[in-house]
Amino acid sequence: MSLLEKLDAAAAARKAQLPEGIGAFGIPIEESYSATEARIGKRRVLMLGTNNYLGLSFAPECREAAHQAIDQEGTGTTGSRMANGNYYGHRALEREFAEFYKYRECIVFTTGYQANLGTISGLVGAGDIVLIDGDAHASIYDGCILSGADIIRFRHNDPADLEKRLRRLGDRSRNTLIIIEGIYSMLGDQAPLAEIVQIKNTYQSTLLLDEAHSLGVLGETGQGLVEKTGMNDEIDFITGTFSKSLCGIGGFCVSNHPQLDQLRYVSHPYIFTASPSPATIASTRAALKLLQEGRLLRERLWQNAHRLYSSLEKSGYRLGPQPGPIVAILLDNPRQALTLWNGLMEHDIYVNLVLPPAAPEGKSLVRCSINAAHTTEQIDQVCDVFSKLHPIVA
Amino acid sequence: MSEVTQEQITALLCQRLANFTEIETEVSPETNLITHLAIDSVKLLNLVMEIEDQFDISVPLNTLVDVLTVQDLANLIYKIKSLSQ
Fold first, then answer.
1. CA–CA dist B33, B40 (Å, integer)
2. Cβ neighbours, 10 Å, residue A28
3. Where does the Aminotransferase class I/classII large domain lie (chain A) (predicted)?
4. CA neighbor of A102 nearest in space, from A223, A240, A277
5. Spatial distance between the Cα atoms of A287 and A97, rounded to a whole number of angstroms
């Protein structure tokens, strides 16, 4: 089979899975009106499928900062941090992230994906081991593959299973990087961090926590699961993204280990890519300030999350394990998930459709993400529509 | 399961794989995991975790790149199991 024939076969398999479901992926957003509303085709829809957890995508402070940066520094850096792309803003944002977490070091990457790719592939290599949660994000898998380390999975959110696998490794557990996430992107559940920290200490392993979906969402100042659980002194490396609660694009890694700085010289995803644009860095710096001061936004977000979760539960839907900004509705099969997704679109509500193998354990999901800017009326409107639609998937 | 033979591993895999696939087929050592059994990547990863527990070994995912058939997988498990004893 030729290279192009392989792609044709993959396309045919995708169409065969759910012919009428193709349009649900990569749906064109024609106009974005606010943090909660957009136009898809001719419909003005309520957006319940973004990662805009604090609703900051139109924050005046962030927009103003981005405008100023473009005027003063231009549209792009045109080079890597190692060459001509290491601006004042990049270094300032690294200082601000380190101060935010009260950690010694920070490296900013061009995307959140690259933050995991660059951190993991810089930390471990051939002969080392990465022990990753079974539901880990693709960026974690790809970082592990790039590293050349031995990749072993443990059962999702199961500390006993993690310990069993560490025990099997014997002395190699000391050369093992355990990788978990604060909030898992598909089911929205949180890692049992305290138990995992205890195990990593027992086996003298190293722990990387990805706070991509928990930054801004958990903890008094929004650091994430690390702050919520009071584990700041126990985590070796924290990665995260600017593209969710910070409404930009980029990523970071913070650590108390001074050796993190060495990644700047060994990590290809850091070295061989252009640095983030001045506007992105400026808006992210402004958003990070708002995030830290955003206790009321977090309260609002969690009120919305609990309101939606409990209403869907009452309507009879099967949901992810715990309430949070990501509310996953579990369906029996792709067709049922697409039926619900279409029903929601017909009522001007956009959510994410997730089909196997993208969702864990071969599940089909309709995935809602909640936003601090959603009004109570909007959440209630969504709850009513879900309630009406329940018979079509019951 | 301290002194397991390669044949025992192959037989056990054939039995387990029959439950893992939705395709009605007899699983033999020559059966291709992807083209014959249509086992997707997630199912294969879950199968690996079961194998690890069954044989009390670690099977790094990066060692699976050359595994195409049931026999390939059995050979890999036997090799890892032998080295761990």
1. 9
2. 8
3. 45-385
4. A223
5. 12
Domains of chain A: 14-54+295-393 (3.90.1150.10), 60-292 (3.40.640.10)
In A, minimum Cα distance to B65 occurs at A145
**Closest alpha carbon within chain A to B64:** A151
pLDDT in tens, A24-59: 888 899 999 999 999 999 999 999 999 999 999 999
| Average pLDDT value for residue range A371-393 | 97
- Inter-chain residue contact B46 with A168, CB threshold 8 Å: no
Calculate how close chain B gets to A321, using CA atoms only, in Å: 20
Selected residues 165-224 of chain A with any CB under 8 Å from a CB in chain B = 165, 168-169
- Residue A387 and residue B9: Cα distance in Å, rounded? 50
Q: Is B44 on the interface with A (CB under 8 A)?
A: no
pLDDT band at A362 (very low <50, low <70, confident <90, very high): confident
Q: How far apart are the CA of A52 and the nearest CA of chain B, in angstroms?
A: 29
Can you name the residues that pair with A210 across neighbouring β-strands?
Answer: A181, A239
Is A16's pLDDT higher than 90? no
How far apart are the C-alpha atoms of A329 and B36, rounded to whole Å? 32
Sequence-distant (≥ 6) Cβ neighbours of residue A107 within 8 angstroms: A94, A118, A119, A252, A253, A260, A261, A263, A264, A270
* pLDDT interval class at A224 (50, 70, 90): very high
Q: Which of A197-201, A230-234, A357-361 has the lowest mean pLDDT?
A: A357-361
- Sort out which chain A residues have CB atoms less than 8 A from B61's CB and list them: 151-153
Which CATH superfamily, name and number, covers B6-84?
Answer: ACP-like (1.10.1200.10)
Q: Which residue out of A151, A178, A203, A354 would a mutagenesis test of the B interface target, given it has the greatest number of B Cβ atoms within 10 Å?
A: A151
Tokens of A229: 């659980």
